[in-house]
Design brief:
The complex is a heterodimer. In chain A, 76% of the residues lie in helices and 0% in strands. By secondary structure, chain A is mainly α. Chain A has a single domain, classed as MetI-like (MetI-like fold, Orthogonal Bundle). In chain A, helix 5 packs parallel to helix 8. Chain B has 7 helices and 10 strands. The longest helix of chain B has 18 residues. Chain B is globular, with a radius of gyration of 18 Å. In chain B, 42% of the residues are buried. The chains are: A mainly alpha, B alpha/beta. The interface between A and B is medium-sized, with 23 and 28 residues.
């Protein structure tokens, strides 16, 4: 057995990506944590991407499929550039973004305060829990048409769909976060004669923040789904509307361009929540130094 | 011997926990009094209600019968004048050592400059100057408990209640911490009631050791520790120290 080859292999094996198990695992789990990263490691993912795109281009140009079924990446890029430069992409994206952010804000705020109430008061918990569980069981996508009937085809109905989708994961995380606070710390605050306001600001909010923020991370991407579902049902603007419109006239490059923009939007929102987490939860890294 | 008036007292305190499997009596007519600036240890078998008594004296739990008194006034709720140190350091993991120490001052609305002055003084008293910006996750068990002691002392409570404060530490650190507690107590002279499982620890630290019976807890012995202060770990091997631990051990067994 060739020893140098064996140790070389072993070294590479020990340097294989591990899944860290910290609280921030969701943000770093997909990143390879290698002790010794060489420059070409960073080229692996872009290389795969390039191969896939070139393959796609080749498939599109082979003539096996009609253009409206598989348009070439270059065609999609040209279409994207066309709607980006005439301002229509920005207009539609802005509508979707507004729906997403407003829905997110309303859903998160409502879930946080309700979750806080449920965690703090048995009365609130017993009164509301069955309805909230039932609400979670309702397929929001199926209710979307109803919401359009009630709140119109404008932005309001989409905001409500976003808020509803975001609500439940946020609620669960808030309740879990509030309930995870050690009783010893509550006793400490009581013995220091903290007011309810102080207890909230000094103990409950910071203690629940890690779990609440991981709820926000899930919610950010769910909100995008909510907006698109709403726009699919009935809308006159937005990226979901653009997709629907493109599909209707078999403008497949437009559909793909809109989907890619939507993905970028969702990724950006997700990235922002990760950034927020790093900013607010720097202390969690302290023990792992 | 005439007792000076007690700063902290328990009057005929009984407590019963009501649970799904019936009532569990935890304390049975416990009376005690702590004179000002005395150090009293409370020992007894596991589950004898020591922690329950401490929580009642802290105002965190209302007893089923009897009452707790602070300078003659009934204790009806937790208050700043009574500081508590828990078994686990119970620090806020999102706050640095410095801001864990200053928490009681912030909550009490102490002016910022005053906060800084007292927090720095407390960092020095507890020997944590070099760890001011460290987070609890970066501290050893002993250091974390030092922060907890500092936090309990910083707002200058009159009475300090300690619930097995060194129970989670290894034997070596535990001895060191008892000695440090002696130093800190010598400088900050508080009335202290400390629950402990360790007989040598109780003898080393206390002026008086109260012994509790198995559940439901009653006070079955009140043993004076006449060892001179300042004391140190050197005492551990002296014959009078060993004799006192033996006496204490016998009275716990008798319960």
């Amino acid at each position: 057995m060739d020893h140098s080859a064996a140790t070389g292999k072993q070294r590479r094996q020990t340097a294989a990506p591990e899944l860290p198990t910290g609280r921030l695992h969701t943000s770093v789990a997909l990143r390879a944590v290698e002790p010794r990263t060489t420059w070409w490691h960073w080229l692996l993912a872009p290389a795969l991407g390039t191969i896939l795109i070139v393959g796609w281009e080749a498939l599109a140009r082979s003539g096996l499929y009609a253009d409206f079924i598989i348009p070439a990446p270059t065609t999609v890029a040209a279409r994207w550039w066309a709607i980006a430069s005439d301002g229509s992409l920005l207009r539609h994206a802005a509508v979707t973004l507004r729906e997403v952010l407003t829905g997110l804000l309303i859903g998160v705020a409502a879930a946080f305060w309700l979750g806080y109430g449920i965690a703090r008061s048995r009365l609130v918990a017993y009164t509301l829990t069955p309805y909230l569980v039932a609400l979670q069981a309702v397929p929001i996508v199926a209710v979307a048409p109803l919401l359009i009937i009630w709140f119109g085809a404008g932005i309001a109905s989409k905001v409500i769909i976003c808020a509803l989708l975001v609500f439940f994961p946020m609620l669960i995380n808030t309740v879990l976060g509030m309930r995870s606070i050690p009783t010893d710390l509550r006793d400490l605050m009581e013995s220091l004669e903290a007011t309810p306001r102080q207890t909230f600001l000094y103990l409950e909010l910071p203690a629940a923040l890690p779990i609440v923020l991981s709820g926000l991370k899930v919610s950010a991407t769910l909100a995008v789904i909510g907006a698109v579902v709403g726009e699919f049902v009935s809308a006159s603007a937005g990226l979901g509307y653009l997709i629907n419109f493109g599909r209707g006239i078999y403008d497949t490059p437009l559909v793909i361009a809109a989907v890619l923009t939507l993905t970028a939007l969702a990724l950006t929102l997700y990235g922002l929540t990760v950034l927020l987490e790093r900013l607010l939860l720097g202390w969690q890294q302290a023990g792992h130094k | 011997m005439p007792h000076p008036p007690a700063i902290l007292a328990a009057e005929q305190i009984s407590h019963v926990y009501t649970g799904p499997s019936g009532d569990v009596p935890a304390l049975d007519h416990v009376s005690l009094g702590l004179s000002r600036e005395s150090f009293v240890c409370l020992v007894g078998p596991s589950g004898c209600g020591k922690s329950t008594l401490l929580r009642i004296l802290a105002g965190l739990l209302r007893p089923t019968a009897g009452r707790a008194l602070l300078e003659g006034q009934p204790i009806t709720r937790a208050q700043r004048r009574i500081g508590i140190i828990f078994q686990k350091s119970n620090l806020m993991p999102w706050r640095t050592v410095y801001s864990n120490l200053s928490l009681p001052l912030e909550l009490a609305g102490v002016p910022v400059e005053e906060q800084a002055r007292r927090t720095l003084a407390m960092l020095e008293l507890t020997g944590l100057q070099n760890f001011a910006e460290a987070y609890p996750a970066e501290l050893s068990g002993g250091m974390a408990q030092r922060v907890a002691i500092g936090r309990a002392l910083i707002h200058d409570p009159e009475v300090l209640l300690l619930d097995e404060p060194f129970g989670a530490l290894d034997a070596l650190t535990r001895e060191q911490m008892s000695e440090e507690l002696l130093h800190i107590w010598a400088r900050a002279r508080k009335t202290v009631l400390m629950v402990t499982h360790s007989i040598p620890e109780a003898v080393l630290l206390a002026d008086r050791v109260l012994v509790m019976s198995p559940r439901p807890g009653r006070i079955i012995a009140d043993i004076e520790i006449p060892l001179l202060r300042p004391r140190s770990l050197d005492l551990l091997h002296r014959s009078d120290f060993v004799a006192l631990t033996e006496r204490l051990r016998r009275s716990i067994r008798a319960g």
